[in-house]
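Exercise 7 asks you to align residues with tokens for two separate proteins.
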Amino acid sequence: ARAKTAHGLRGVVSFHGSLDNPATLPASPASPASPPLLPPLEPPAAQVQALILHGNDDPFNPPERLAECMAGLDAAGIAFDVHVYSGAKHAFTRPEKTKPADLAGGFGYHPRAAARSWAAATAFLAQVLERPPPGRPPQ
């Protein structure tokens, strides 16, 4: 969502993140009264790519919130991929989230989702970082 103000940003990975529609976020976290980010983004910001790694059973980000986030990314011109892990709750990469209170609160470590999301993130970053930064010709 900050692609318009993050010079040189090429890729973003979200592990069980808070999913928002980028068009509804303020332009600056320090100034919440500032106007929202308005799609579409201008190049080179439009070259930013995003990878969203999401647990299907995340109570903090139900399917409609994921859909709103994806619609906002589309409207902003940000290329994105979404991987949804069945049976995974919020914080699925955190091995300490196994206590009954964690599970009751919507958190939970999920080994399969953790392993697959890490593999997806490392492959995504390798691909994104191998291309030259926006505004720079290939060498």
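Second protein for Exercise 7:
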Amino acid sequence: RAKARMRLLFALLFAVLAASNAFQLHAVRGVSALASRTVSTMTVLVVNGKKIDAAAGSNLGKAVEKGGLKPKYSCKKGECNSCVVSVGGTRMRCCVDKVPPEPKLKSLKENGFVVK
């Protein structure tokens, strides 16, 4: 009888520990997944002298339009290059390209990418 009680006690203890570890692991994964979704880097764009905060990876055309620059769109597929703007010296197509990620250099983080 004592051995049977001891086995039952260990089985219950093991089940409780396994369940609590699985719950904690699931909770930690849920928090990290939630944190990665909510944390988005903002890129500073300077359009016509006006600084704009745009989420990295968002539509470049909409971000540029917030600053007052209205690029021309012909094909809306990136084939005709009529919507090309210069973002920090790199030619990008507004209709298909995304806002670049936040730069590593401190001066570019503060001053932003100049859009022409």
